[in-house]
Amino acid sequence: MVSKPHGGRLVYRVLKDSRRERILDEISELPRVDIDRDTAVDLENIAYGIYSPLTGFMVREDFESVLDLMRLSNDLPWTMPITLDVSKEDAESFEEGDQIAIYSEGTPIATMVVEDIYEYDKKNYARMVFKTEDPNHPGVARVYNKRELLVGGPIELLNHLPNQYERYTLRPIETRVVFRERGWRTIVGFQTRNAPHIGHEYIQKTSLAFVDGLFINPVIGRKKPGDFRDEVILKAYETLIANYYPKKSVVLSIVRYEMKYAGPREAIHHAIMRKNFGCTHFIVGRDHAGVGNYYGPYEAQEIFNEFPDLGITPLFFREFFYCRRCGGIVHEKICPHDENVRLRFSGTMIRRHIMEGKAPPEEVIRPEVAETILSFEKPFVE
Amino acid sequence: MSEKKPSGKYTTVSIPRTLYTRIQKLIEGKGFKSVSDYVTYVLREVVAMHESEVQEEPFTKEDLEEIKKRLRALGYI
Ligand SMILES: [Zn+2]
């Protein structure tokens, strides 16, 4: 059977039809809170059950339990705080028990029933989640930029955020139907923010050897200069699948999500998200969700030992590379040879080739994939 | 809930001393910090297994047809 959602029940808090219209008609009467893009993306993920069992932003009891114990107050594994921050002035316009309207970029996107308004310690938040108080860490910086108070309570989604990739977007209620219709019992999830090179392909195919289906789930979110553009990643994957994958064993769809770069804690969060999509297995590679040198290369794998009740099985991988002596794609555990006969899949090297308008070596990237990438005038974010 | 909620992050349960000693021996050098750590780990594993497998679908039959329509149109099924 497709994996049961985290906490046992898939959350779905999307309003439609008359109820939605009635609330939208009266929305201007509710106290208003404006939220940033990151928080809006989290909100949408709550509404579609990607963060099941969360039905809204965290109340203090859950927030503190997540920081201290990496579990919700009902003991379910949960490692990332999902919070709505407001200013003191915002908080003057409502109190616990009130319904408020949540706006993103000038549009009302949701309502929320306020259950809890509370103060929090940003340094403690940073240290517990990111293992550092360093403001140069991008996740920590975002915590420091949050407003003074947190507000918790259940939400209901009124309007989607604009989505350029709606055609590629499947929600858990949909992926679960796809997996079931295809007769898959075991599904491995792969998260990516990159155009695929052969190392990715081998990790996916090695996993697929043991399960019924592969769920490739690129994360669409904020990018930094030099990253592949989202459209390039999607087209590159389509090309790879069309040429090198048994089509009936793969599903490609995106999830909108803003990376927090919390390394090990975020790896658990990513696994829970894929469990909610219906995956039974999740691939965790080297330095998953890491940034800089804040986390050890395999810390994001080791943390899974602390969660015997996670309900999704992690598959751990070391880096793959091409070995001239082995004559193929291998990894540390199976190749005894020296570094000088190994060709590593370096992102920098791939980028350099592409920038020069040349295809990287065939041992590194499939020629069809390289061609797809090169067909874009500007494959990278500027 | 009728039981009083324990305050603080941890609470105490009793196990026979013989079992305690047995676990102590078992976990020597196995990476568990304490008997409590081990007991928590094992209980969570067992409890998760025993929790209900039934799952309510958050959608009706009509919703399901709508979902399938979209999935077919996009070529997923
Ligand atoms: Zn070798």
Structure, described:
The complex is a heterodimer of chains A (382) and B (77). Chain A has 382 residues and is α/β, with parallel strands linked by helices. Chain A folds into two domains: 17-157, Roll (Sulfate adenylyltransferase); 167-258 and 318-374, Rossmann fold. Chain A contains 13 helices and 16 strands. Chain A has helices at 17-25, 37-47, 60-69, 88-92, 122-130, 138-144, 172-181, 198-208, 230-244, 264-277, 299-302, 347-355, 367-374; strands at residues 32-35, 56-57, 84-86, 99-104, 107-113, 116-119, 149-157, 187-192, 213-220, 250-252, 255-256, 281-284, 313-316, 320-323, 328-331, 342-344. In chain A, the strands form three sheets. In chain A, strands 1, 2, 3, 4, 5, 6 and 7 form a seven-stranded mixed sheet that branches. In chain A, strands 8, 9, 10, 11, 12 and 13 form a six-stranded parallel sheet that branches. In chain A, helix 5 (122-130) runs antiparallel to helix 6 (138-144) and helix 9 (230-244) packs antiparallel against helix 13. The N and C termini of chain A lie far apart (44 Å). The model of chain A has no long low-confidence stretch (mean pLDDT 96). With 77 residues, chain B is mostly helical. Chain B has one domain. Chain B has three helices and no strands. Chain B has helices at 17-27, 35-50, 61-73. Chain B is elongated, with a radius of gyration of 23 Å. The two termini of chain B are 45 Å apart. The mean pLDDT of chain B is 84. Bound molecules: zinc ion (ZN). Zinc ion binds at residues 323, 325-326, 330, 335, 337 of chain A.
